[in-house]
């Protein structure tokens, strides 16, 4: 089976590519740079040069493959509108090419904004609708094609997909601690973040490709709710910094863009996903990765 993967050289994508190759799939990875292309070639993937704005290249990649896993995103936090625009356009191009094919299309999204006052579940529909919504509303756009011959599946990732050399949200929180000299949480720090190890997320993607029915919402979540105060305390111990609280109104000023997310409760469950796929997260916890030096020397 030939699988076209966008974001193939990224943090989640590179782990997913390795997982798919090990399982015997032929993987075609989208690569924007020479460095990304070389990394994909070194593990045995086929390289398709291009980027998210190369819509014809995306269509060709989908046309020449048996399934598509869309993990790429510009993630430009200085211009989220541009990231949303590019995401919407790229997914629209892929879906238009896949229409009527019966092929599987797995699209990345997240658990943010799915529920208030409780942990989100796979039963929660995404509230993001339309091109101006977060991620361009692409989860719902993909589901619009279920009755148009596309087997769309949503891959919802925890806010932290952690592991050695992670450069995502937790790395941004660690960077803020180093810059300010304190390891902070927002408010009382009782709001929780879901978390998943990178290896578990990659395995869930493969199992989703193999087992999930069209229309499924899959949650890549290993830990349902890690209190943000505990995250701050673990970072503080690791860096030898005092732990403090910042007011919600000061979160963005203290942390940068990540402050808006660190102030949110992003708890989520994956019980339905685990039951559907026979998937059990077994990777290290977020605390274990922090203590093992995934984000700073120990």
From TrEMBL:
Span of domain NAD-dependent epimerase/dehydratase: 3-213
SUPFAM superfamilies: NAD(P)-binding Rossmann-fold domains (SSF51735)
Location of the region described as Disordered in the Swiss-Prot/TrEMBL record: 117-137
A Pfam family the protein falls into: Epimerase
Alphabetized Gene3D superfamilies for the sequence: NAD(P)-binding Rossmann-like Domain
Protein name listed in UniProt: SDR family oxidoreductase
Organism per entry: Herbiconiux moechotypicola
Higher taxonomy: Bacteria, Bacillati, Actinomycetota, Actinomycetes, Micrococcales
């Amino acid at each position: 089976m030939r699988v076209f993967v966008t974001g193939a050289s990224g943090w989640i994508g590179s782990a997913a590519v390795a997982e798919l190759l090990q399982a015997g799939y032929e993987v075609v990875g989208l690569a924007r740079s020479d460095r990304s292309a070389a990394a994909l070639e070194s593990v045995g993937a086929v390289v398709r040069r291009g980027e998210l704005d190369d819509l014809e290249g995306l269509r060709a990649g989908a046309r020449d493959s048996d399934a598509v896993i869309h993990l790429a995103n510009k993630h430009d936090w200085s211009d989220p509108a541009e990231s949303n625009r590019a995401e919407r356009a790229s997914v629209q191009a892929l879906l238009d090419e896949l229409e009527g094919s019966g092929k599987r299309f797995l699209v990345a999204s997240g658990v943010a904004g799915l529920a208030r006052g409780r942990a989100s579940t796979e039963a929660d529909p995404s509230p993001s609708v339309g091109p101006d919504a977060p991620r361009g509303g692409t989860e719902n756009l993909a589901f619009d094609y279920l009755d148009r011959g596309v087997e769309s599946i949503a891959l919802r990732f925890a806010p932290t997909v952690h592991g050695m050399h992670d450069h995502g949200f937790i790395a941004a929180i660690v960077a803020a601690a180093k810059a300010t000299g304190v390891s902070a949480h927002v408010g009382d720090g009782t709001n929780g973040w879901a978390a998943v190890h990178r290896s578990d997320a990659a395995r869930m993607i493969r199992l989703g490709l193999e087992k999930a029915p069209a229309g499924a919402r899959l949650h890549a979540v290993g830990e349902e709710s890690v209190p943000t105060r505990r995250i701050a305390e673990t970072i503080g111990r690791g860096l030898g910094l005092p732990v403090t609280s910042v007011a919600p109104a000061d979160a963005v000023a203290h942390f940068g863009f990540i402050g808006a997310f660190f102030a949110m409760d992003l708890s989520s469950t994956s019980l339905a996903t685990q039951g559907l796929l026979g998937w059990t997260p077994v990777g290290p916890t977020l605390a274990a990765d922090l203590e093992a030096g995934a984000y700073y020397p120990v």
